[in-house]
Amino acid sequence: MASKEVYRTCPRSGLQFHDSAETLMKANAVAGVVFLLFGGVLALLVALTRWPAVHLLSADWFYLVLTAHGLDMLVFWIIFFEIAVLYFCSSTLLRCRLATPRMAWLAFALMLIGAVTTNVAIFQGNSSVMMTSYVPMQASPVFYLGLILFAVGALIGCFVFFGTLVVAKAEKTYQGSVPLVTFGAVTAAIIAVFTIASGAIILIPTFLWSVGYIKAIDPLMYRVIWWAFGHSSQQINVAAHIAVWYAIAAIVFGAKPMSERVSRGAFLLYIFFLQLASAHHILVDPGISSEWKVFNTSYAMYLAVLASMVHGLTIPGAIEVAQREKGFNKGLFEWLRKAPWSNPVFSAMFISLIGFGFLGGISGVMMGTEQLNLIIHNTIYVPGHFHATVVIGTTLTFMALTYFLIPVLFRREIMFPGLAKWQPYLFGFGMYVFVLVMMGAGTLGVPRRHWDMSFLGAVMPYEFPGSAYLLMSLVGASAVVAVIGGGAYILITVSSILFGKRLEAGVTSSKPTPVVTPITAAISSHGSNIGIAGFAAPGTFVLAMVFLVAFVLYYFINWKYLSQVWGLS
Amino acid sequence: MSAIHPPATRLWWKQPLDRVEGTWIAIAFLWCLIMFFMMPYWHVFGKQNLSNEAYRTTPEVYSKKAQDMVDKYTVRTETAEKIPVVHPPAGSDVYLIARLWAWWPILELEKGKSYRLHLSSMDYLHGFSLQPANINLEVIPGYEMVVNVTPNEAGSFSIICNEFCGIGHSTMASKLYVVNK
After folding, report:
1. ipTM over cut 0.90
2. Cβ–Cβ of A378/B129 closer than 8 Å?
3. Which of A36, A74, A295, B178 has the fewest CB atoms below 10 angstroms from its CB?
4. Closest CA to A19 of A1, A7, A27, A30
5. Domain B53-179 classified CATH 3.40.50.1860?
6. pTM for the structure as a whole
C-alpha cells in the first residue's frame, strides 16, 4: 500500500493532498451536497405549507416532509461535509497520509447506508415523528436503525481524523503545534465523540423499545439525553465552521491569528462547556431543578458564549490586521471596504459571521435564559434562531469553503462565476429576512411544527392577529428567495464538478513534503505602525461594541416583556 | 504564519495579548457574569419563575383528580361536545389534562388570584401554549407539573398545543377564561 501512495501539491494553493484523502474528501463532500439538494427541496415544501395563503401540503405530508428536512439538513448534509473538513484539517493541513483509508471508506459506507435507510423509513410514512423523535411517539425500528448506523460511521470518521493526527506527529510532517484551524477541528471532533456517544446511549434503547425488547422509555430522560445528542450536534458545527472562518481568513487574506493563545483558549472553552447546552431545550420541563437549569443553560457562566464572542472579535480582527498591514490602514473601516466583496469565499464567510453573531447568537442566549424561555419555548422563534446558527452559520460557511475547494480539491474552474459572485448575498440575505420574520412570528406565539395556524377543524380555534399572518407570509416568501440562493449554489457546484474546465493537477510525489514553517523562539507582536490608539484592530472593536449594545438592549427588552406576563411561581 | 500553518513561534502561548483582545475579553466576561446573575436575581425579585414542583403520576391517577375537580366546580358546559367549564376557588389546585387532541376541561380563573395549576399528559408530549399571553410549558406523560399562576388581566385566552403530537396536532386548541371578581 505505502509504496503506491501519491501526494499532489496544488499549484493554486500550495496545499498538499494525499490521494486517498482527496478521494474521500470528494466523496463525503459530494454526498453532503446531494443531501443538501434533497433537504432544500423539502425546505421549499415546508415553507410553502407554512405560508398561510399557499398552504401547499396536507397535514400528513407536511409532518413527514418536516421530519425528513430536519434530519437531511442538520444531520446528513452537515456531518458528511464535516467529515470532509476533518480529513482536510488533518491530512491536508498537516501534509501527511490519511490514517486507515479503508476504515474511512467503511465510515462513509455506513453513513450513506444509514442516511438512506432513515429516509426510506420516513418516506414509507410511519415515522413522521420529527427529527427529535420524542418518546412515547414511535417510529418504525428502521428509522432509529438508520440513525445508529450513520452515527457509527461518523464516529469511525472522527477516529480516522484522530489517527491521522497521530500519523502526522509520528512521521514528523510538521513542527511545533498543530495549526489553529486543525485545533478547531480537534475541538469539533472531540465534541462529535461526546455527541455521538449521547446519541447511542438514547437511540439504541429506543430502537430496542421500538422492536419490543424494552417496555418503556421515560420521556423526560429521553429529552435530557437526546438533547445531549441533538444540541451538541450543532456544537460540532459551531466548532467546525469557526475553524473554517479562521481558515478562510488565512486563505483569502493570509491573516494570522491575532494571538494563538486567545483563539485556542476560546476553543478550549468550547470543549469544556459547549455541551451543557442540551439544557436549553428543557427549561420549561417538569421535574428538573432551577439550579440544574441555570448552571447548564448558561454553560457554567456563559463561558462558551464568552468563547464565541472572542472568536467573533479575533476573526475579523485578524482580517483587519492583515488588511492594515497591506496598506488599507485609513480610518476605521477602509480594511473592510476594500475587502474582496465579489469573491464568494470571503463574502459568504463574512455574511455568515455577522448573521451568526447578531441573529443566531443574541437570540440563542436570550431564549436560553431560564425564565425568558417561558415566552419563547416551542414557538416558531426557535426555528428562527437555529436557522440563523445552522444555516447562516454552518451551511453558508460550508458554501464559502466549497468555492475554495472546487478549484483546489476538485481541480475544476468554477462555472457561472457571475452567479457565484451573487449567490452568497441572495442566500445569506434571504436567510437573514427569513429568520427575522420567523422570530417575529414566534414572539406573537405562532407555534413551530404546526400544520395550520388557523386551526381548521378545531372545536375552539385561536385566532392569531393579522400581523402573525403577515409575518408567516414573509417567512414563506423569504424562504423562497433563500431556496433560490441555495439552488444557485447547487447549480454552480454540481455543474463545475461535472462540466467545469479541468485545471492542472500540479506536481506529484510518492512522499509527503513536510510543512516548512520558519519556527523561531522569539515572540513577535503586530507592527505598532498600524491601527488607532494602540488598538491593532480598532474597526473590529467598534463592530464588537455595536454587537454588544444590540445584545444588551435586546436581552433587557425581553426581560421587560417577561415582567408583563402572568405571575408564575 | 497564518491559521492554516503551525504557529511560527514555538512558545506561542507566551505572546502578549493585543490591547483590543484584552479589552474585549474583559468586557465580554463582565457581560457574561451579568447575564448569569440575572437568573438567580429574577428567582428572588422577579414574578415569573417556575416552582419546579413536580410529581410522577399515571394517566389514571391524574385523570381521577381532574374528574374530581370537574365534578365539584363545573359552572356550565360549552360547544356541542359539552366540555365542562370549571370555576375553582381561588388558591385551589386546578387540573388540566392534555390528550390527543384536546385540553380538558375549560378553566375559568379570577384575575389577580393565584391557583396551583397542574399539568400532565395522557399520551404523548404536548406543549401548553397560552395565547396571546405567550406562556409556554412542556407537558410530559407520567409527570405532573405544578405551576402557581396569577392571571393579571381578564379576558378570553386560548390554550394551543405547540409540541408536535401527531396528525391532529393543529386542531388541539382550547379556551381559558379570566374573569373579574
Report:
1. yes
2. yes
3. A295
4. A7
5. no
6. 0.96
